[in-house]
Design goal:
heterodimer, A: mainly alpha, 9 helices, 0% strand, B: alpha/beta, Rossmann fold, 6-stranded mixed beta sheet, 4-stranded antiparallel beta sheet, globular
Chain lengths: 257, 244
């Protein structure tokens, strides 16, 4: 996995990377249906991916909720002199867009790099070859537990993150601008489609991030330099996937409204 | 019988193997020698389907590997025990779990796995290290654990990629003796890649010499030792081109 030096080389590398990602995804899907379910491995990954990310997500999304409400409150107070409706403006945005997408970005950064580094290290030390020699295909033994864990934990983390953003925003609105918490928490402004959009995005990120990161790890070559490249590639590709999926799903939901 | 017919393999336009053909009879032992980068490890990976040839055919017994899918290859690999150059022990598993891994993947009962793991640990003279992790072991101990894992399922084919690299002479001697014992116990066919030519000579029925991806010679050990390039390599470890 050397650095492509020309535009043609970059295009070929990109095409190979996309092809490998599709191939790993296809194999992982096959093993989801037909393969063994290694529950201890799945729970271990759920702990690593989900439980160990909770604090990170709560802090980041909590501050995000606070910042949005702070900015919205300043503007509302300055322009119309009333900040009572900032919750109604901020909540749909957090549920539909910022909650799932920022959680996805955080998972891509924290978990995607971990997956790529771990699998990449196994590739360069021939452990992946040893797995293949022992009837443990990497797509089943390595990718599937991470995929299942992400499919469950990313929507769960998104829900927790949105909740943290909601309460942090409510606190800022109440303390900073005197907004009534009851008015702030007007759930009528968040329609069913907003919730569905948020969860569909979270689920899509939960599928894309582990497959992209695992593919980057499986493509690692050489020694520690190769693992480093794989890790960088994983975080770049997974973050890009989060943004592109966000756009595509938002676009699809826009036409459904 | 293991057989390669006209095998060629390139990576990024660089030809690593050129028209390599040889055969190893059932229960035979082939010593595969050559300078670093000659393509020895690649041949072992071709023989277990971890890498596919660009041209040529690879046979394990009556099975040609070329047309097999990855899932079909998994069945074939169950007949092979592979010792990797860099140990390839799973660092997140204990020694016992590493050795029992092939059996666990074959869904054998836990009691049988535990018994066979302990038998192998006794055979490689490491009876008490089952609960330890690979990071706690020396290089020689890791090689013996690797040997135990490669043979725990009694494979009829053993592929050994430099099983004594970086080890002291005493441990090297011990590893070669263990290899031979386990091969005899399993009635296995073995290919051993090694630079330890003095140890290879007495245990191999045949020797093959590779030079920069080209097969220089493959044949019985006695005949190999009469071949000037092989003899030069076996005696001095020099490249065949330098021996001319």
């Amino acid at each position: 996995m050397s650095e492509p030096s020309t535009l043609g080389g970059l295009a070929r590398e990109l095409r190979a990377q996309i092809g490998d990602t599709i191939d790993v995804g296809r194999q992982a899907a096959w093993y989801l249906v037909r393969g063994r379910w290694d529950w201890p491995a799945i729970f271990a990954q759920a702990h690593e991916i989900g439980v160990r990310s909770v604090f990170f997500v709560i802090v980041c999304l909590g501050f995000l909720g606070a910042i949005i409400n702070l900015q919205a409150g300043f503007q509302a107070t300055r322009i119309i002199g009333d900040a009572s409706l900032i919750g109604q403006q901020a909540m749909p945005l957090v549920v539909r867009l910022l909650g799932p997408t920022l959680t996805g970005m955080m998972v891509a950064t924290r978990v995607g790099t971990g997956i790529a580094a771990e699998i990449g290290s196994m590739v360069v030390t021939e452990q992946v070859d040893a797995l293949r020699m022992n009837r443990a295909p990497p797509a089943e033994y390595l990718v599937k537990p991470r995929l299942v864990a992400c499919m469950v934990m990313v929507p769960a983390l998104t829900t927790i993150g949105i909740t943290a953003a909601f309460f942090a925003g409510m606190l800022v609105a109440a303390v900073g601008f005197g907004t009534n918490p009851g008015t702030y928490a007007d759930f009528d402004v968040v329609v069913g489609l907003d919730l569905i959009e948020g969860m569909v995005k979270a689920a899509a990120y939960g599928v894309a991030i582990p497959i992209i990161a695992a593919t980057a790890g499986l493509r690692a070559r050489g020694g520690s330099e190769g693992v480093g490249e794989a890790t960088t590639q994983a975080v770049v590709a997974a973050s890009l996937a989060v943004i592109v999926l966000d756009f595509l799903i938002s676009g699809a939901v826009f036409f459904l409204r | 019988m293991i057989r390669l017919e006209g095998v060629c393999k390139s990576f990024d336009g660089v030809e690593v193997l050129r028209d390599v053909s040889f055969a190893v009879p059932a229960r035979g032992t082939l010593g595969l020698v050559g300078a670093g980068g000659a393509g020895k490890s690649l041949i072992l990976k071709l023989l277990c389907g971890l890498v596919r040839p660009d041209r040529g055919r690879v046979w394990l017994g009556e099975t040609e590997l070329g047309p097999l899918s990855e899932r079909e290859l998994m069945g074939v690999r169950g007949r092979i025990g592979m010792i990797f150059q860099n140990y390839a022990l799973f660092d997140y598993l204990t020694v016992a779990d590493n050795i029992g891994f092939p059996l666990a993947r074959m869904q054998r009962p836990a009691a049988e796995i535990a018994a066979r793991v302990q038998t192998r640990l006794d055979q490689v003279h490491l009876p008490d290290i089952g609960p330890r992790y690979p990071r706690e072991l020396s290089g020689g101990m890791k090689k013996r654990v690797c040997l135990a894992r490669a043979t725990v399922h009694d494979p009829p084919i053993m592929l050994c990629d430099d099983p004594t690299a970086g080890l002291d002479p005493v441990t090297t001697n011990r590893i070669f003796r263990l290899l031979k014992d386990l091969q005899a116990q399993n009635d296995a066919t073995a290919i051993i890649v090694s630079h330890e030519t003095a140890y290879l000579r007495p245990i191999c029925d045949a020797i093959a010499l590779l030079d920069r991806g080209r097969l220089v010679f493959a044949g019985p050990t006695e005949a190999a030792l009469q071949h000037p390039e092989v003899r030069a390599f076996m005696e001095a470890g020099v490249r065949p081109a330098q021996a001319r």
